[in-house]
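Work package 3, deliverable 3.1, input record:
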Amino acid sequence: MKQKQSTMKLLALAAGMLTIGAAQADLTVISFGGTNQKAQVKAFYEPFTKETRIAIVQGEYNGEQAKIKAMVDARNVTWDVVEVESPELARGCEEGVYEKLDYSRIGNKKDFLDSAIRECGFGFFVWSTVLAYNADSLKVAPTSWSDFWDLKKFPGKRGMRKGAKFTLEFALMADGVKPAEVYKVLGTKAGVERAFKKLDQIKPHIQWWEAGAQPPQLLASGDVVMSSAYNGRIAAAQQEGRNLKIVWTGNIYDVEFFALPVGVTQRDAAYKFLATVGKADNQKVYSSEIPYGPTNLKAMAQIPAAVAAELPTAPANAKTAVASNTSFWVEHGEDLEQRFNAWAAR
Amino acid sequence: MSAKAIGEAVSGAPSETATPLKTQLRRAERLKKLKYGALIAPLALFLLLTFLWPIGALLMRSIENPEVPEALPQTLRALAGWDRQALPGEDAYAALVADLTENKGSRTLAVAAKRMNMEEPGFRSLFMNTARKLPLEPGVDAREGLLEIDSQWGELGTWQLIARNGRAYTDYFLLAAVDLYRDGAGNIVQADPSASIFVDIFVRTFWMSLIVTVWCVVLGYPVAYLLATQSSRVSNLLMIFVLLPFWTSILVRVAAWIVLLQQGGLINMGLISLGIIDQPLQLVFNRIGVYIAMVHILLPFMILPLYSVMKGISPTYLRAAVSLGCPPFKSYWKVYFPMTIPGLAAGGLLVFIISMGYYITPALLGSPKEQMASYFVAFYTNETTNWGMAAALSAVLLLATLILYFVYNRLVGSATSGARPR
Amino acid sequence: MSQADPSATIATKAAPHVSFRGTQKTYDGEHLIVSDLNLDIRRGEFLTLLGPSGSGKTTCLMMLAGFETPTAGEIRLGDQVINKVPPHKRNIGMVFQNYALFPHMTVAENLRFPLAVRKLPAAEIDVKVKNVLEMVRLSEFSSRYPQQLSGGQQQRIALARALVFDPELVLMDEPLGALDKQLREHMQLEIKHIHQTLGVTVVFVTHDQGEALTMSDRIAVFDAGIIQQIDSPEALYERPANSFVASFIGENNALHGTVESIDGALCRVRLDCGAEVVARPGNVVGVGARTMLSVRPERAFLVSGSAPSVNLFSGEVKEVIYLGDHVRIRLDLAGSHDFTVKTPISQLDKSLQAGDNVQVAMDPAHISALDAVVESTAM
């Protein structure tokens, strides 16, 4: 998932074009593409079409809200259901980009994680950004973000996502801030300084990545020895036989949402689709396709132990995890990203 | 015969009829002009609609500021005469409570909160949270009520920020695009060095474009010369190689450069196996990689104008110079080179201006240190949907380009004015 | 044989200014553009290389200028062999077909160029530029750019530029080709006068025979890489050395026949129609050989009353063409269907019209008996 940023953006643009010609009765669902979307097709799209006889037109994008905002502003909404990340959902909800959801048409709120139920978005999986490393190039296994910063013990380049979000959190954890206090510290001016100062230590050794597909490639090619990465991507690379390992300590997890843009044309079908996505059986299929955690509590119980252990929602993995603070990033995102850009460009 | 007599003889009529003749001529010419006008009107209209109007609209975005006036009309009215030196009066607090209560949960308020959050992080929650807690209990004083909800309402800066955004137009984005901002009192001041970025980015954009242009000249000039002077069979073949890059998409070319230049790529492997180096060179994800790919992509834009100018230069000029006693190399420099300046100017300008807008190549082949102005335009457009900022950066880039073009035109224009009658 | 051994005819006291010795040029190794050229150019003369396009005349000029290298043989300038001297060291002025004035320089800058290259003192340069501009009467145009001048003015500046550095030899490659007729004739005289004033040696290439006749001291007629004849304009016109020269230069009536006898300065030729002609032997091989007789239209006269006994023919008038100063009369005469007689208007019988029978006489000295190449190629 998370093919954020430029590389894929261009491909997505072309792909996005393909969705425009959709017939009226079809439902247009836009996701982030890649292995994540493949899992969605199997777990949600196919059962939905079977049940309702409504065809799904697939599309992909990279989370850029500009396109959706433009659609809504122009009152020409061609996308019916859109996969959205948490901070974008929060902003879009307030700014009238996404419709407020009627949960009675989706399912029982109590069946889901609290964090999955939001005013304008229905959370359907939990993903995580983790520390991943190439077990072939590192003799000793790193265990925390402090090791990520330890250039002496683990020489070599590090991969990090080009952006302030999560990068600053990891820096603070590496500097000894407890997971529970990360956002408290980052909320202060001194905390921001501290994070950037920590980043300064390894700045020349960082290889920045933008697309979610990059970290496994960089790790496999030996360009970097450790990288921040989306856990699903690493799992996919493991299945391809790469000797990549995940360190769950200090991972940051978040919920991913489906939302309906304001003025959606296929509202009924869209709600039916959300209901299909919410079903425990379907979410179970999804998690076995790609190791992202389900939001339906019943689904969690049904997943085999071996699969469950690889999910962000597994108790062992969640123990030292940090929940991504959406409101913090909504508030400070612009400011910190600007600061990050200025820092990185220097 | 006097001139007048000739005129009469020619027109074959007394001079009184000359006036209607002139009028007729004018009328005929006006009709002709109208016809020509009608012929180009569709194109002019098309350009206006598809080019000038969107650019104008885009530039307007960089100064438009409708969010706060829409969300807080009463507050702004109450602040109309405020001197911004001390906290405003009770009526401003009351108006704010009324505005927030009215717009509670609306898109208008969220957009205004987002707008103010751009200038002062924390304002979004200040506004959204305050609105959520309104209306006040009946009888509670507006000022005390607000202060109770959040002490920030008792700070001068909060009110200065609201007042500053009270007009439908703002210079905030344009100032921010050159690392400036207005402080509480409305004075323009330099942004904090840790957050200053855009002046450096523009300088970098210029500098990198200049380097790319210089390399394109150095590499493209001899190729254009070969193209222009070789037999048509050879030059056609060469031309295919020059145009080859145009046949593939820019993404494919960039991807190909990554494959070639990366640590384990063809070039590094080749150099290592030849024993020239023993450690792979860092050729990509840094400035070298960006330069290599940009020069490669932009070279045809230099070669083609140069070629067309060189093609028009007869070899006789060089022979003439040599016959006048000038050694061959000096002849090239004194006679041939000055005659190619118009091509060099056109190609240079083309490459430079295209470079200034480059986005994909630095984004994919460079590190954060190579990102140019367009990257940030895309960043603000797509990532943060801060279109005011994107428009402001575009406006600064456009302005810089225009100034440059003007200066350039002056310099090159005077150097080649020989080609035009004065 | 067709090449009228130039070195012999120009057995002059002074050493030649330029001499080609056995010079050859080929581009592809198969065809000679210039084959075995031997040519001496006298100091101070105005020599024109005349010929159809592709005849090798321009190649000769370019070899002399140094832009082409001879494949074999040598070229001497004075007593120096210049085969290996690069063009910029030959000190030869050159005027090009399209003037080749540098468009990015003013007239004055163009004229200063060869002087500045020679590192002359600025003051001297100024004087020379001023003088040469006066010579071509364009002093007031010194700060203009070439594009702002008319064709004739550009031509004069190009000439001035080729002369300003005082070369002893000036080459001109069809310099008047781009001008209209009137201006061309004017410039022909102007160049001729400048040549006479300065006394430089001029080698002039043209394909316009009128131009060659007007300007030259001598003309070398080129064809197929060979000099067919080199002579003064008058000799060339009146006594062409072979049938190519006769038909290339001026108008020519051709009569075909066989040589019956040669007797010193005269020969007898039996025409194919049976008539007998007495002529001046040109390059005919001998008795029994086929020949082409060449007569200029103005050297044939309509006669009435007392007629000479030799070379008198009668023919039928086909057409009378009035040309203001003279009349052209086309005749069916002596086996030729378009025999032309040119008669001054003052000597014309006004009553003459098509269908009339007339008598035409020709002076043997003005009939050249030449080789029959043209006849065979024409057939």
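DSSP finds 20 helices and two strands in chain B.
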